[in-house]
Design a protein that fits this description.
Chain lengths: 222, 247
Amino acid sequence: MAVNKLFFRKTIIAGTGLFLCLFLIVHLSANWILLLPEETARELYNSYATTLRENLFIKSISYILYAFIVLHVIYALLITIHNRKAKPQKYVVNHFLQNSTWTSQNMGLIGTMILLFIVVHLANFWVRVKLGMGEIIELDAIGNLDVYEVTFSLFHNIYYVIFYTILMIPLGLHLNHGLKSAFKTLGFYHKKGLRISAKVSLIYAVIISIGFGVIPFFVYLK
Amino acid sequence: MKVTFKIWRQENRNTKGAIKEYKVDGLTEDMSFLEALDHLNELLVLKNEKVIAYEYDCREGICGQCGVFINGRAHGPHDNITTCQLHMRSFKDGDTIVVEPWRAASFPVLKDLIVDRSAFDRIMEQGGYITAKTGTAPEANAILIPKEVSDSAMDVAACIGCGACVATCKNASAALFASAKINHLNNLPQGHPEAHKRVQEMTYQMELEGFGSCSFTGACEVECPEGISITNIAEMYAKYTKAKLFG
C-alpha cells in the first residue's frame, strides 16, 4: 500500500525539525564565544569560523543542514496548502484560544517569520563569509577571516540588534511547539514521557531564544 | 430569558449559506440548548417559515449526532461535552449565540446545521471491525485480557464519532477519530490478526477523504465529549510505522 501522504509529510517535518534543533544547540554554544571579552573572543571566534569552513566533515553536515532547511520549508508549505483545502470555509466566530495555544494555531505564520530571519541572517553572514560576496572581509592577526568584525559591526547597528533580538521570540515559540510535537509525530506516545518532553521543549526553547537574543545586545554594549 | 440566535441557514449542499438572526424570548435557564432550538423552530412554524435543520438523537451525550459549532466552540463554551449536554444556563439573558455547522471539506453541509459525516463511515469500513465467526457468544474467559489493556481500549472505544475533533481542528484533521478507532481494536487480542492492515487502510481512507494533517494543537481533545487524549494520535503514528516496517 502507498505511503500515507499525511504521515509522510509530517514525518519529514518532524525529522528535519529535530535535526535543526540539534544544530541550534551547536550554533548557540559557539556563538556564546561572542560574550567573552573582545581580546579572547575575536581570535577564538575567527578560528572556530575557519574550522567550520575548512573541515570536510562539518562541510558535509552543512550541506545536510541546507537541504533540511529547504525540505522543512517545502513540506511545511505542502502541508499548509493541503490543510487549507481540507478547511476551505472558516467559522464566523472561532474562539480557538479557549482550547489551544496561539502558537500551535499559527506555526505557519511563525515559521514564515523565522524564514525571513534566516534569509536576512544568511545575507549578512553566509553570503559574505562563504560566498565572498559584498564588502571584503579583512584577515585577523593570525590570518583567519575576521568574522568577529563582521558580527561586531553588524551588532553596532541598533536596527539589526532589535531585528535579531525580536525575531528570537517567534523562534522560541516555534521550537517549543515544534519540538514536543515532533516526538509525537515520530510515534513517541508514552504519557509520562510526553509530559517530560513538553517540559524539555519549553526549557530548550527558552534557552535557545534567550541565548541567541542576548548576544546582539552584549556585542552592542562592547 | 431572551437571546439572539445567529444561525447558519443553507438550503442544500449546492447553495450558498448565510447567517440569519432570530430574537427568541420565552426561554428558561433549565432548557437544554437543543430545547431552545426546538422552541425557536416552533416559533418559525407559527410564522410559516422553514424550520432550522439540525441533528440529534439520544439527547444524553452518547449518539454523537448533535454536533454544532456554538459561539466559536464545538458543542458550545464548555470542554468535553456534547451539544445536548449544554444548557441555556451557560448563557446570559440578552446574549447573542452564533450557531454554525461543522466546517470541513470532508463534511459538506447538507442543510442548515446538518453536515454529511459519511466520511467517518467509509474510514470505519476499511477496518473498524474484527473478522470473527458469528454464532453463539464465546466463553467470556477464552481470551484473557489484562485490565489495563481493556481499560485503555475502552477509553478510546468511547469515541462516539461526533466529528467535533475535525470541526475544531484548524486543519480539519480526523487523526483523533481514526486513532481512537484503530487503537481500540489494535490494542485488544481480537484485533491483532488484522492490526497492520487496519492501521494502513483506515489511515489511507482518511487521506482519500481529504482530511488535513494533525498539528497537535490539542484542540480536539478539549472538545472531544469523551476526552480522548491526543497521545492516541502519536500511538497511531507508531502503529503505522510498525505496520509499514513489519506488516
